[in-house]
Every structure is written in structure tokens, then in C-alpha cells.
Amino acid sequence: MWGPSHFCLIMCLWACLDALPVAVDKTKVSPPVEDVEPPESVDTGLHYDRYLREVIDFLEKDPHFREKLHNTDMEDIKQGKLAKELDFVSHHVRTKLDELKRQEVNRLRTLIKVKQDMNGEKGMTVDHKALLKQFEHLNHMNPYTFEVEDLDRLIKSATNDLENFDKERHEDFKKYEMTKEHERKEHLKTLDEEARQKEEEHYEEMKKKHADHPKINHPGSQDQLKEVWEDADGLDPNEFDPKTFFNLHDTNGDGYFDEQELEALFTKELEKVYDPTHEEDDMMEMEEERLRMREHVMNEVDTNRDRLVSRDEFITATNRKEFLEPDGWETLEQNPMYTEEELREFEQHLALEEQDLNLRSNELLKQREELERQQEQLNAQKMELQQVGDAILIFFVAIFSYLLSTFPHSHYHYSNKSHYHYCNGK
Questions:
Q1: For 94-137, how does the pLDDT look when each residue is reduced to its tens digit (9 = 90+)?
Q2: Phi and psi torsions of 310, nearest 5°
Q3: Rounded (10°) CA dihedral 69, 73, 76, 77
Q4: Domain EF-hand spans what residues (predicted)?
């Protein structure tokens, strides 16, 4: 069963849940079931997710490594002390790890080859540094055997990548928002004055409509959790109990809230703002809002920063003043992802990229025209050579025809003369 030590090892399976609010009897609350196998773990989002899972699964099958894993704290894992235990695992496990590494190296090599070919076809420069970064989670200089260095690299890469995963998601969302605004502005430029005014009025109307929603409770506050308690769990809000609430939503019963379990608690609040059937609501923005809520609760409650909220951390948080009297929560429309200056810089960057693409396109067009010109020259030369060849052939045919027309007569005359002298005894 995946426990806290597994999470510390890779910080990536995120407690292996597909967490959703649990349906319960409205009059009874059952205690958590012990030793329940967790659901299949969610995708970490890392490009080496499958390799990571398979390595950990096979290491778990070794009794020595499993024992060390459960008895090693997070800092020792990060510092590579657990990786050294690889030397003591069974031969069967090591053999399987060797095979997994070879498969991963082959996968990455194929992926890089495809990227290089695609960039070459587009006339783009290959970013070798970025391509080599794909190999940071293993030692590709030794593609045949899985060594201590490979496990150490895998642990450190997964830890670092996941610690920066949310940051990268925020940056991707910011680019998404700026791209959306840029495309809207570019579209307005194609319209006449009347159509542009109507489009602007519609845009402002949609913004106002989206902002007109019920009050959003502060994520992780008593008011927010009570709504889940009442609406999702079907229990009396006046009988709200933090310990019972934790047991209900710790869906795998391991004594921790992971990130997915926490994010599932915010669905009710998000539904107040976002509806997939409404034109004014963007589901990409909803997921960003969910991420912001989860990060906020983690920052307030996860005191040991292990990306898990333990039962004790949760109960302690419910006794704070902030839990009972939270500040207001600003949604995305109240807290924009970018400034006007950032948007201008982004648009300038897009303009430079477009200019660069146009230059490359012009260069390719010139190269094509030059190749076509050279092909025309080759075709002309080929025609000239063919004409010369035909002339030479005609010449030789004429000579040969002339010889054929004269040679048989000379031969006949000579033969008759020889016959005459022979018959006369000469």
C-alpha cells in the first residue's frame, strides 16, 4: 500500500488517488476501513511517469528495499541515502530494472529522433540542451544497467520537477490567457467600426455575467467545508465535525489528504463560478482556480511541506482563527494573471517569432525557387545533350547506310573478277 514514505520517495504519485467526495448514509458515518488497497495512481504529468512508476513498483517487491523505504525520512531520501540501498536488492529485481532502463533509453532516443526530424522539416534549429534534459532522470552514458546513480537521479529529478510543476502550470496558464487576449485584439482589427463596437459590447457583457456569481467561501475555511459536509456528504451542517469530515474525505484511509483529495473539496465552490454550458465561463480558468485553491490550503495547513496534509495538521488548522473567520477569496477575474506590461512584452515576443518565421519562410521559398531554377537548367542541358546525341546518332546512321549501300557492290565486282581469272587458269 502506498504510504507517506512512498510519497517522499518520488513526491509524484500524489498519494495515488482519484479523489472524489464519498457518498455516505445521511444518518450514519462509518469509520475508515483499514488496509484498503488504493485505486490506481494518477498520472504525475512527468514525461517519464511510466518509467518512474515501474521502477518504484519493482523496488517495492524487494523486502530489504521496502523495509528501508518505510524507515527512511524525506531528507535522507532527497540526499540520496536510500539510493545506496540498491546494491542490496535481489538479482531478479536488478535484472528487471536493467531492462526497464534500456526500454526508457530507447524510448527517449526515438522521441528525440522524431523531434529532430520534425524541426529539420520545419527549418528550425534543434535545441540540443533541451533534448538532453529529457535524460536527466537517468545516466544515459550507461544505457544498459540500472545503477545507484540512476535511482539517485530519478528521485532528485522527480522531486525537483514536481516542486516546480505547479509553477510551470501557472506560467502555461498565463500564456494561455495572454494568447486569448492577443487573438481577441487581432480579431477586432479585422472588423469595421460598427462590428468592432458590437464585439466589444458583447465581450464586456460576458465579463460582467461571469463575475455575477454567489459568494465564494475561503478555501479550507469552516464555511467552505460545511458546504461540502451538507451538499456532498448529505449531513447536518450544525453537526459538522472536523475529525469525521477528514475520515470521510481521506478516500484511501491512509491518514493523509493528498493534492487530489484536497482539490476534490473545492468542486462546490468552483461550480458557483463556472458552468461548461455558459459561453462566458472558461473551463481552463476553472482548473487554474482549483489549483490556486489547493496551493493556498497547502501553504496554510501543510506545516512540514511534504505535500500531504496529515490528520493532525488538518485538525490543528481547524482550531485557528483563520478557519473560523477567514478573509475573502479573490477569484481570477479579481486577481488577473498578467499585467498590461507583460501582455505587451508577450505580444512583442509573438511579433518577433512571427517575423523570424516569415524570414525562414522567405529563405525556404528562395531555396525552392533556386532549386527549381537549377532543375530547369539541368532539364535544358539534358535537352541539349539529347539533341546532340540524336544528331550524332543520325550522322552515324547516315555513314553506316552509305557504307552498306557501297560495300556489297565492290565485293561483288571483286568476286566476279577473281572467278574469271581462276577459270582462265591465271
A1: 999 999 999 999 999 888 888 778 777 666 666 767 777 788 99
A2: -75, 170
A3: 50
A4: 237-272, 289-324
Does residue 176 sit within a domain?
Answer: no
Co-location of 206 and 310 in the same domain: yes
pLDDT at 123: 64
Question: Cα 284 vs. chain centroid, distance in angstroms?
Answer: 16
Co-location of 149 and 199 in the same domain: no
Q: Which three cell numbers stand for residue 256?
A: 493523509
All cell numbers assigned to 318:
481547524
Sign, CA torsion 226/229/230/235: negative
Residue 218 maps to a domain: yes
What's the rounded Cα separation, in Å, for the pair 200 and 397? 83
Residues in the chain: 426
Query: What is d(CA 195, CA 217) in angstroms, rounded to the nearest whole number?
Result: 39
Q: Which pLDDT does position 39 carry in this prediction? A: 41
The residue range of the domain holding 58 is 48-155
Neighbouring C-beta atoms of residue 367, cutoff 10 Å: 11
pLDDT tens digit sequence for 295-321 = 999 999 999 887 889 999 999 999 999
Q: Which domain-ending residue is among 338, 372, 393?
A: 338
Task: Note the Cα 234 to chain centre separation in Å.
Answer: 38
pLDDT of res. 43: 59
Mean pLDDT to the nearest integer, 190-211: 95
Domain count, the chain: 2
User: Using an 8 Å Cβ cutoff, are 116 and 126 in contact?
Assistant: yes
Is the confidence at residue 426, as pLDDT, over 90?
no
* DSSP characters over 342-405: HHHHHHHHHHHHHHHHHHHHHHHHHHHHHHHHHHHHHHHHHHHHHHHHHHHHHHHHHHHHHHHH
Domain boundary among 100, 133, 155: 155
Whole-number pLDDT of residue 406: 76
